[in-house]
Specification:
Blueprint lengths: L2 H29 L5 H27 L7 H10 L9 H25 L5 H22 L7 H7 L1
This protein binds fe (ii) ion.
Length: about 160
């Protein structure tokens, strides 16, 4: 990598790490908006996947000497991101994931392309969490009784 590429990569790495902390808070906050116990449980699992994704890349963040914003700050931002999503039906929310999240997946692939070889294993694991979220939502829409299986596998 050139020096310029390195700067862009590190900026993107920190951004994506912080986004997972936001994501955990986002799903946790949304869990309070759904009345159905099973849906709340699924949102708790989604939050756990976000935390796991963050934990997966945290060693890279530290290795490169990056300093994320305080988690209290990030969690407040994440909870605010729920905004209009707080009024989604479960079906609307699952559709939202299948429509909007593939673009995030593209961003993760772009991050991998910028990365040094040593960082790739962790970043591929980060990318995979987005695949898992989309897979889950597609299964929910299809009324798959094993919809949480991809989430549970990711958390193993
Ligand atoms: Fe995420």
């Amino acid at each position: 990598m050139t020096k310029t590429d390195d700067t862009a990569y590190l900026k993107a790495l920190l951004y994506h790490y912080e986004a997972e902390i936001l994501g955990e808070a986002y799903f946790s906050a949304l869990a309070d908006c759904f009345d159905d116990a099973a849906e709340r449980e699924k949102l708790t699992l989604l939050a756990a996947v976000e935390r796991r994704a963050a934990d997966t890349v945290r060693p890279l963040v530290d290795k490169h000497g990056l300093v994320p914003r305080d988690e209290t700050v990030l969690k407040a931002i994440g909870a605010e991101l729920t905004g209009p999503h707080r009024h989604f039906s479960w079906r609307q929310f699952m559709t939202h994931i299948t429509v909007e999240y593939p673009a995030y997946l593209d961003n993760f692939h772009a991050l991998e392309k910028m990365a040094p070889e040593d960082d790739l294993v962790a970043l591929q694991r980060l990318t995979h969490h987005e695949v898992v979220l989309i897979d889950f939502a597609q299964r929910e829409i299809a009324n798959d009784p094993d919809s949480v299986m991809p989430l549970q596998h990711y958390l193993e």
